[in-house]
Design goal:
By secondary structure, the chain is α+β, with helices and mostly antiparallel strands. It has eleven helices and 13 strands. About 0% of the residues have low confidence.
Length: about 375
């Protein structure tokens, strides 16, 4: 399925291709640059031309919801600005920040105060997001503020109807669930009451609609969206990790997902070991095991980056795999952290789908 001629003409003249962020049965999303009146700006493109025919009607419906919500939210400074919208493609501004599940803002009270302001502005404009349970849809901006993205399920209301109030309540309740995960000490008594009380619609959805939704998306559409990794990250990665760890030279491994222009979703295995030549041996062993398809990339590293509890920092590794190196800098706590990642970045494998970041914007010691 191709884009309409007018959409294709605009993108051909104004869109500069960059990093593929995500591809599923509902759209293709990539990061690049968009030409505007006074130059170029970082942007994100959503397009429907690679959507399969059997999911196109639903994909077009979700696209229309996002286009309408972004149009109404223009100027609110709560999420990406709508830069251009056609019939089957739209371009929104790029938020300089990291998704909540990657940034992990533990104890950051100011972030969650900002998130409440963001929700208040959305709701005053008559917009309910309806998909804020996903941490991927909350961004921690480089300025420390909260932004939301991915408005495919958003609803726009003319009046503050009962349905609007229910949807707004659920938006708030999902925000507070994230606050409970990262800053539980900051929850107020009234916020705890909200967390303890689902709306009737939410309870009904959990008991009925969500089961149907999962049956359709995971069964009929074969679609799983855990941190954008799909079924390979959910089903294949744990099996592959166990097979890799069987090699006596391997101390540990961490497998993350990245969007791949050829296969849709690729897997990238970071393997902690001392032998740099171990990669070919691991590929032979994985092929011989006749299990899931081996990772597209295997990188042997002297040590995996770890958090205070000793767990691999997969949020950092995922950004490396996706070539979004400029987003790593705000997550570095010290010069030691930057130095630690130097070898990993210099030896990274996924170089086919790179974005032309200015080296002056990337303060990691790459050279």
């Amino acid at each position: 399925m191709s884009l309409p001629k007018d959409d294709a003409a605009v993108l051909s003249a104004r869109w500069i291709e960059g990093v593929l962020l995500k591809r599923d049965v509902f759209s293709t999303v990539e990061r690049g640059r968009f030409r505007i009146d006074d130059g170029e700006t970082d942007a994100v493109l959503r397009r429907l031309d690679q959507v399969p025919w059997w999911s196109f009607l639903l994909a077009r419906h979700l696209f229309a919801r996002e286009r309408k919500a972004l149009s109404r939210a223009k100027g609110l400074a709560v999420g990406p600005e709508l830069l251009w919208a056609g019939r089957r493609a739209l371009v929104r501004g790029f938020i300089d920040g990291v998704a909540l599940h990657l940034a992990k803002p533990y104890g950051d009270i100011e972030y969650f105060r900002s998130a409440k302001v963001t929700l208040h502005r959305l709701h005053r404009a008559g917009i309910c997001h309806n998909d804020l349970a996903k941490e991927q849809n909350w961004l921690v901006g480089r300025d420390g503020r909260a932004y939301v993205t991915d408005f495919q399920l958003a609803a726009c209301f003319r009046k503050r109807s009962r349905l609007f109030r229910i949807a707004a309540y659920e938006d708030l309740r999902h925000l507070l669930k994230h606050k409970r995960s990262y800053a539980p000490h900051a929850l107020t008594p009234s916020e705890r009451k909200i967390l303890a009380r689902k709306s009737f619609v939410a309870s009904l959805w959990l008991a009925t609609g969500k089961k149907v939704y999962r049956a359709i998306t995971r069964g009929l559409f074969n679609f799983t969206d855990r941190e954008g990794g799909g079924r390979r990250l959910v089903n294949d990665a744990p099996v592959l990790a166990d097979l890799i760890r069987k090699n006596p030279a391997v101390r540990d491994t961490a497998i993350v997902a990245f969007a791949d222009r050829r296969s849709g979703v690729g897997l990238y295995a970071f393997v902690e070991a001392d032998r740099a030549a171990l990669e070919s041996q691991l590929r032979t062993e994985l092929a011989a095991a006749k299990g899931p398809k081996p990772p597209e990339h295997i990188q042997v590293v002297h040590a995996l980056p770890r958090d205070a509890s000793g767990r691999p920092r997969t949020e950092i590794l995922q950004l490396v795999a996706m070539n979004q190196l400029d987003l790593i800098e705000p997550m570095m706590a010290s010069e030691a952290d930057r130095a630690f990642l130097k070898d990993i970045l210099e030896q990274r494998k996924n170089l086919r789908d790179r974005f032309n970041f200015e080296t002056s914007d990337l303060k990691l010691p790459l050279h």
